[in-house]
Each structure stands twice: as C-alpha cells, then as structure tokens.
Amino acid sequence: KPAMIYTEIPIQIEAKGGYHALGGFINMIEASDNIMSVSDIDVETNPDDIQNHKMKLLIITYVLREETPAK
After folding, report:
1. Do the bridges between strand 36-44 and strand 53-67 make them parallel or antiparallel, or are there none, so unpaired?
2. What is the pLDDT of residues 36-49, one digit of tens each?
3. pTM of the full predicted structure?
4. CA distance 3 to 5
C-alpha cells in the first residue's frame, strides 16, 4: 500500500501595501481549500508613505503525493 506524504513548497512573497491589504491577503490564504501556512511575516514602515509598507512573508503550501514505501 502506498504511503501518503506531504511535500512542503515554500513561497517567499515581497510586496508593498497597507495593513488592511495584508490582513485581507492572509484571510484569503486561510480560507483557501489548499493546505497552507503563513510564517516569517516582516513589515517595514515607510516614513515617506505611511499608507504603504514593505512586507515580506513566507507561505508554505503542502502538496499530497503518493510514494511506494522502500522495501
């Protein structure tokens, strides 16, 4: 019988935007049918434009794959 294994696929995202846009984006990820997690969120304020901040976050998506166990 094949073993079910999840493969992690990390996705690094860098963007500019406001806190509400970031929250909306994370909410869409949470509501997705795909299994994903968000980590390593970094928000850097921009004193020249207080509405837009530099943001970096790591999204990890998990993909199910089948493997035949080693004999």
Report:
1. antiparallel
2. 999 999 999 988 88
3. 0.73
4. 6
